[in-house]
Structure formats: C-alpha cells, structure tokens
C-alpha cells in the first residue's frame, strides 16, 4: 500500500528556501491538510480508490460572495488506498493546499471505481451501491485565516460503508460514509517585529513548504502550525533592510511559543 503517515518531516534548509523564495506568493494564506483515517471493520483489508477532494469556499472580503472551488488531488499514481490499515493512530495525508482568507462551506470526496476487499485471503470486488456516490458531498464549515495550518479529518466508517448484498456467494457493495471534523495537534508561534513602518512578509518554513502571514499595525504576528521544527523567515519587502532567519523553532501541541522581538536591521 502506498500511504503516507501524517507526520511532517522535520527541518528545512535556508539555502533551499533562498533558491525559490522569489517564487513564493506573499499574499496572506492559510494551509489546509486533508487527513484520512478509518474506523475499524470486520474485514481483513479494504481498498478504496480515492481521486481526491473538492473544496468549496467563499473568499473573505468579496462583496459578491462568489463560491469558488479548489481540487486537492491524491497525488500517487496508484490511488487505491488500503483504508482498513488507517487505524491505531495511523493516518494518510490525502491532499493539501493553500487557501486565501476565506470560509469553507463544503468538501466533496471524489472516488474512482476500483474498490475491493479481502476476507480469509479471498478477494471480492466492491462495487458502489449507487454510481452517483462517486461524489460524496460533506457539509463542513470552517474559517481560514492567514498564517494558520488546518487539519480536516475524514474518518471513513467502513463498518457502515460496506453492505452485504448477498451472503452465498458473498457479494458486497460500497456505500461510502464519512465523518468529518477538524483535527487537533497544533501549536502556536507568536512574536513581534519592528520597525512597524515596514510591511514585511513572514514565513514559517518546513521541508520546503512555507506558510505566510503579515504583522498587524503594532508589529505582532501569529502562526498556528502542526507539531514539528520550523524556520521563521522575515522578508522586509524593503530594499533598505536585511532579511532575517530564525532556525529550529519548535512547535509543540497546545503550546504557544513567544519569540524574542525581531528588529529588522538596515543594510550596511
């Protein structure tokens, strides 16, 4: 099974970031992570083909309230996931992407048609009870703010999702049932910087990925992030000032870490 245990890799290098920092979008955004887990079932193993998920949202501050969509694909070429293995604390990162400051209204899980299960070492084809269920809409509302990382957990309830259509010979069907909720496991990093006349962009960087925010009028900023080790990079957005990098910032679950005040220095 091709799966990814949901733990971000620790650390990042400044040189790697520096080489691509010009390509980073400095507009304030939040990061959304879709996490797949499973409620245990009686079957030996269950494989479900999941293509990804479509997220519907409305951008904050837009007077027309236009509904927008963004598709988060499940990246591996083989999209058949051994959902039954995602128990006992194991989880799979189904997809992730940045979103502007906005409000999520709905998430639709997109399924393929290659599903199966194993019982007593015998494989059974698992057909959808209703072909319209290749799209599984889930009502879910959540506000996205700048500088925050959000985990959304999709709990695939296999016990309710697998129907026995016939017992002899065994024929089974898939009626996909998900429970959706907001995940935990985050900590906060906050700080302040000056001069407050500048309007810098601040990045939390881990393993080549970055999340950006901006300070308020008093120079204060806040990140909410998954547990791990980060670098905090400040781009002054002013050619007269030097940028600043703080390495090895530890984020712990439920803990708010306050950084020492950052004072951006003029270039020599």
TrEMBL record:
Q: Which InterPro entries does the record associate with it?
A: DUF4382
Q: Its domain of life?
A: Bacteria
Enumerate the spans annotated as DUF4382 domain.
29-167
Q: Name one Pfam family in it.
A: DUF4382
What is the name listed in the Swiss-Prot or TrEMBL entry for this protein?
DUF4382 domain-containing protein
